[in-house]
Backbone:
């Protein structure tokens, strides 16, 4: 009886799960799809009532205006914003991965006094909203003279990403049997060689997952960057979106075009590392 019930109910359960996933993904993707469509439509269609869902007159003018290729509007320093975002995100991610990998390995492999307390402190630091840190960070950074600098933002994103990276890599290294490292050392490897040749390749997928999450956190962050940057020399792409706002108007089409430019590098990077990303997310699930 139970076997028959399972064979009858299982297809329904699968279809219900698929329906739920489809509805959830639809809710998540519709706003992004609307932004992409708005980037390719004229401003008059954005303001039309009733709303025009599918652009009637597709145009690249919104992207041309970003780079000053249109006579309708002077170009914005998009290239400088892109370089700032790339340098800040890659640097903070690289440092976060190096420090986080070392910290995660130490928490996973060694015993030391205050280990649980220190790990809890790292995790609690992630519970503080970034907006709540904006004022104290602004005051401290102003006294240090690193307001409106890429270095100041790199320090902030390192502090945000390192605890999260330690937590992820700690879980990945715990899934790797310590016997592998000990066997390598018995065969003549030093502890560093055992880590680099044995443990690091096994945890590579997990580190790729941590890296992509750290990069996206730095690339998409707006609240702190908007408070700690002032000029073109340090503004990031998300902060550059505010260049499309005026006192009484908002250039929705230009803002959407720049949002598409922000999305593209994140999508490309995700597709490049998606093999390692999926493996890292499921790491340890199958022995």
Residues:
């Amino acid at each position: 009886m139970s076997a028959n019930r399972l064979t009858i109910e299982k297809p329904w359960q699968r279809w219900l799960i698929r329906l739920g996933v489809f509805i959830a993904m639809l809710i998540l993707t519709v706003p992004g799809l609307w932004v992409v469509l708005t980037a390719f439509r004229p401003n008059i269609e954005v303001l039309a009532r009733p709303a025009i869902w599918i652009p009637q007159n597709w145009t690249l003018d919104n992207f041309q205006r970003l780079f000053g290729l249109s006579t309708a509007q002077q170009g914005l320093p998009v290239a400088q914003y892109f370089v700032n975002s790339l340098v800040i995100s890659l640097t903070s991610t690289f440092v976060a991965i190096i420090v986080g990998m070392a910290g995660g390995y130490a928490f996973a492999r060694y015993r030391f006094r205050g280990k649980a307390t220190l790990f809890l402190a790292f995790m609690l630091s992630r519970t503080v909203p970034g907006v709540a840190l904006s004022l104290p960070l602004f005051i401290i950074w102003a006294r240090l003279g690193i307001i409106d600098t890429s270095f100041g933002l790199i320090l902030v994103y390192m502090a945000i990403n390192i605890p999260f990276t330690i937590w992820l890599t700690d879980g990945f290294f715990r899934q790797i049997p310590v016997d592998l490292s000990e066997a390598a050392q018995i065969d003549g490897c030093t502890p560093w060689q055992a880590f680099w040749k044995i443990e690091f390749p096994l945890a590579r997928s997990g580190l790729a997952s941590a890296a992509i999450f750290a990069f996206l956190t730095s690339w998409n962050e707006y609240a702190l960057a908007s408070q700690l940057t002032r000029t073109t020399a340090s503004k990031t792409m998300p902060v550059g979106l505010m260049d499309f706002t005026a006192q009484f108007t908002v250039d929705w089409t230009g803002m959407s075009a720049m949002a598409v430019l922000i999305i593209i590098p994140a999508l490309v990077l995700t597709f490049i590392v998606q093999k390692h990303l999926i493996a890292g997310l499921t790491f340890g699930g199958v022995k």
Observations:
- The two ends are 33 Å apart (CA to CA).
- The mean pLDDT is 84.
